Amino acid sequence: MQPTFVLVHGAFANSFSFAPLQAELGLLGHRSVAVDLPGHGFAATYPRAYQAPQDLEGLSTAPGAIKGVTLADNVAHLIGILERAKRNGPVVLVSHSRGGLTATAAANQRPDLIDRIVYVSAWCPVDLDVNAYNAEPEMATADAAGLMAALVGNPAELGLLRINFRTADPGVLASFKASFLADGTDDEFMLFLNTFQPDENLDTGTPDDRARPDTWGRIPRSYVRLAEDAGIPLAMQDRMIREGDALTPENPFDVHTLPGSHLKWLVDPAPAARLLGDIAALLPAES
User: Fold this and answer.
1) Overall pTM surpassing 0.85 (yes/no)
2) Which residues, in sequence order, are bridge partners of residue 4?
């Protein structure tokens, strides 16, 4: 039976960013569904103060719908989608960036719903949680200065993380471009930046949400390295691959590499679509 690709976005993103990839997958004959995690997509908040001319003081206190959303909420939402997709045949769960946290926790809970799990430069916490990974040497080249410079309001008071992606500060924009899409044109970068939503939830999980050998570890898995990724550097991607392989050496990652930055595979999705098709072909014939 034909598999369904279930696509899970990263931080501040939504299902919209997968539209070009879904078009390429469809033209190759593949079925896919892009997920909006709770508080994302059309459920996101874009405060009036975020519009031009911006009111940064108002933006710093405006409520956001994603307040209180937890990783458990994300996981429950994703599991509901996986249950529906599984009725139609095999499921290939594909996550990007922070979406890997949700994918990993869902795989811990319901490995029966996933025929293959694919991480595209995504967080796959094994030995540490994501906050601890961010303090490790492999993340030393990642530059969070742009995000911190564009931070609006107090996350503890807002109950969410709010970033002003509509800033006109040239230094912040340069930092964003270097982190996300250094190999894209300025127009591609600005277009993608305007698909981001300003709010993200604060919950990145606990040690209990790390990959478990008896559930997550039973699922065939692939990791797609992004060779020029400055957001999750290659050294950190490789570390998570090594840790996953050490956790279940009898079921190691199937590893692939695409050239490009953190977002280039979504801006120019044809190579990624072909690769995902090749990965789906690894599913057992009886699936």
Assistant:
1) yes
2) 31, 91
